[in-house]
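Why run this: before we spend reagent on co-expression, it is cheaper to look at a predicted model of the complex and decide which construct boundaries make sense. The entries below are exactly what would go into the expression plan.
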Amino acid sequence: MSGYLIGVDVGGTFTDVVGIAPDGGTTLAKAPSTPADQSEGVLAGIARLAEMLGLGTADLLARTGRIVHGTTVATNALLEHRGARVAMLTTEGHRDVIEMREGMKPDRYDLRAAPPAPLVPRARRLPVRERLRDDGRVETALDPDSLAAAVAAARAAGAEAVAVCFLHAWRDPTHERAAAEAVRAAMPDAFVTTSAEVLPQIKEFERFSTTAVNAYVGPLVSRYLDRLGGRLAAAGFAGPLFVILSHGGVAPVAEAARLAAGTALSGPAGGVAAAVAIARSGAARDLVTFDMGGTSTDIALVEGGEAALGRGRAVGGERIALESLDIVTLGAGGGSIGHVGPGGTLQVGPRSAGAVPGPAAYGTGGTEPTVTDANLVLGYLDPARFLGGRRRLDPAAARAALARLGGALGLSAEATAAGMLRVANARMADGIRIATVRRGVDPRGFALLSFGGAAGLHATAVAREIGIGRVLVPLFAAGLSAWGMLHTDLRYELSRSVLDEGTLRDEAALRAPFDALEAEARDRLRGWWSGEVAIRRRADMRYGEQVFEIDVPLDGVDWDSPGLPARVAAAFHARHRALFTYDLPGEAVVLVNARLAAVGRLPARPSRAGRAGGGAAGGGAAPATRPVHLEGTTRAVPLHDFAALPEGAAIAGPAIVESDTTTVLLLPGDMAVMGPDGLLDVAVAGGPG
Amino acid sequence: MTDPTTPDPVTPDPVTLAVLQARFTAIVEEMGEALLRTAYSQILNASRDFSIALCDAGARLVAQADHLPVHVGAMPYAVRAVLDGVGARPRPGDIFLVNDPWHGGSHLPDMTVVVPVFGEDGTLRFWSVVRAHMSDIGGATHGAYNAAATDIWQEGIRVPPIRLGEDGVVREDLLAMLAANTRLPRDFRGDMLAAVGAARLGGKRLGEAFARHGAARVSAAGEAILALSEERARAILATWREGTWRAEARLDDDGRGNDDVTIRAAVTVGGGRVAVDLSESDPQVASFVNSSYANMRSAVAIAFAYLLDPDIPKNDGVFRLLDVTARQGTVAWAAEGAPVTLCTNHSGQEILEAVLLAMANACPERAMAGWGKRFRIAITGRDPRRGRPFVWHLFHARPGGGASPAGDGWPCAGEWGVVGGIKFGSVEMAEARFPLFFERHEIHPGSGGDGTHRGGPGGLATIRVESEGPSVGNTAGDGARHGVTGMAGGAPGAPHRYVLRAPDGTERVLRTKETGIPIPAGAVLDLRAGGGGGWGPPEGRDPAARRRDAEEGFTA
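The model came back. Tokens follow.
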């Protein structure tokens, strides 16, 4: 693809737009996000980018080869409970699957919490007489009268979207398809989705819940992407528009709208995609991403250049069982508020000042001390240079807020600020430990990739807490998500349950589901992709009597020669041993779900992310040192301009390395070297102890 | 790294204290994750029937992971039993094990691994504790729940505190001996090693904290956390009314023909403490509903914790405000040798409910209505599709949760001691793996108790048993005669009703403690679980909510 590439990440406060020029030059533009219609902010950001490049918007868009977009429309609809009015057609006798939630309740000790309202209330869960057996045999044929009654009820209820969720439909979608046809005929404007199409897998709660989410967010996501496409076309864009999905790959808008539930993690996916790109560039094979924003911090793992995936995700309390990046979100960020906790301890968060009223230093009404205020009072942040000088910070207001809190604890403002950072950093370190142990890995062998507005001030301290010896900070930290979207691939994820206990004894039976998935994936990709396609296979497998399946990557398994069942079984035994320290070679192995990803590798473009223009100029040469509170004393700490550092420049901590959009704090003993592609590579002193 | 904000070497400042408080919580969570990942058996993985704790050198509970509430506060008794016996002079690398209900255990399936943690100077600082429910523990029937048992020896193998390993190495001979006494030796061995691994991980993580902060300071932080937790609980208690109240809760029966086995609680709130007296409870019975001491203490602790704030630390600082009196030889605290296996469900539930009902008088605005009772059924028979035997345990048709001042109860979220912590399996998967056909699995209309806030409905399952030839069922549970309590004028939840309908149309209502129930092929189990209790007078219910209930079919 020729011309510019544009990545767009819509955040809570700012919309980041990254442009990569044909020569690899990379530019970040920011515009305020527009929550009512995100596409306005997107267009404003593109206009800003064009201006920075000295082009007209139409001119830039005419020269743009592709736009990749991360959207939070689905996420926000789930978090704010303002999705579509959904009706569900479901097997008679089983209408409460999404309300019973498998008997699980989060927050076990809160017995004074009312249950959440289901996405589809019971009165709109409409029973249809039909029933399949687990092997796909028809127990009860689809009854036309009960179907007609259910469709009429959905229509009378004013449903904008209809989810069709029948038991065992993953085995045979015939009944679901017939029901969907009946709905489409009676309700031509409705968004119609079926469980077998969304997630053709056994286990009805995961499948029905994901389908209900798809119906709930589908109409909003479709309308939004239509609107965005319209605006972009009107502004002169004729190329392809892609959306980054929860699994970190991208898909064209039509696919994203069809499987809208798969965009629920579109927002943070860009940062993980960037981490994958950085890992594959050779900087470090194993990374922990540390994406610290205003209200929360996202943590994900990249192992051997691959992002960790999972299927247990809930957004807004709703289960989405589609393949998605395994991102752990902690409720602590720059806006987290410090306060006196139970029994006189200093606590940080979970309450956040957000963008409004914001940290005390913003002077926009916030009076409580936030992590950002603490960083300011300790001298880590330059009040004149925050967000490229667009927001002046008021150190006196920050100090006053911290002094008030300190008064209650018997601590000075500085000691309170230092204490808040210690508490926040310890919490993030604990979050990273839990995120890594859950995947069965030791974080100490990983490098910490720091990005997002606030991460650079905390990364070296958090790394110390955990015993991580290396921190990487891209100069582009503030726009890394949008940049990452331009470094990921087209990806189509398919799965299908198999669940025949004989699958692993029969070569043909084992190949069949994977071959079918591959044919479907290639077929679907054909519409939007003419390049080479890589096929990645995985399977969910278990020993015969076990309850839970484990996810077994089959990338290394030779798929072409005979004897496949033995090789797949061996991959399972090995994976089981790696995860649980033992295997049972004599036991029967059951393959429950076949999974396949078709990946169309988009042309990579080497981009010098480090040489980005960071928006407004920083206001002259930075002073050579700044007084900073470190380890209980105030000292003059050297300042370095991140953007001006030549490759190979070495900086010993303590030091502050800052750009318009990010600030990195190097602690005593740390040694940073400016790497290629604008990556600051920090060797962290010591470790724990 | 020394900490400049902390001048003296032992007392933690407010910041270090917050850091260490978070560290204790993170350690118990990490231990739980480790156990989940390495355990063999379904019961640990699926039901998460395990618990993790850190106790201080004096066996006081400092931190506990939020798994099944049923274990809350019970673990220190196991540590104390170790300290009083074989572990009186622990050495680094020791691994202790206990399950005996008369040595700090709750019931025999719960194996508790206890590992001492020493500071850099060799001083005992903490105990890392892991309790895990084993799939089988020997005894007269498979899977530990033996409704026919008349003494503890029919329930399985008793393990008073023993030194299972030294110098960090498990004694293979002891482990083999224990495993040989269970029907699932491979699961047992795997789960035990997983529990030992998790307990040792806790010790390792504490050691790292010692290296960083100094063991003395970490110990002092534990002490300070207990003091702060106590202070916080006292502040809540200060808002409670003072006085003495009595309440009771009844089990349906003991399964031996004696109905209405009753727990009687007297609760006195005053002077910043809460006294609980269970000594007027009925005498112990001849079946497995008797409670062990640790289980009784746990039920009392949970009742108290539920009425405090949801995020109140579950530690000794809070629980030491309780003065508990009970009489050995009662159903609330059985004498040595009695069967006790069902007690983590029943009578644990009834102890909790009686105590909570009495305590609620002191803080009516905090009190929630009753959560459901457990009614297990296990079926064994022959699977015609696979041509081999099957064993199936019912986890569907869960009972409903109690209503609260905040709103209606949770549907199908389970019992007082579980509160949404056990996942029932997929119907599709159950049909694929067992010769069962679920004609219906939905919410049980009308089962939640009426009230200003309605109790959560239980589940309803209509299951056809398609075995080859007849199957056999065993039940273990309670709540078919007495539903769970309402609160503040709310109505009780409906009791369970399990009916077995034979192909010839004859019906049999199942009792909660039966063994050897014949189930002909093609018979249908019609299982209607009880709902949670209602909260507040029914006439106070918002008419719109009542209309919605009718429209949604939540009321019968």
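Chain B touches chain A through 88 residues (CB under 8 Å). Confidence is low (pLDDT under 50) at residues 1-7 of chain B. Bring this page to Monday's planning discussion.
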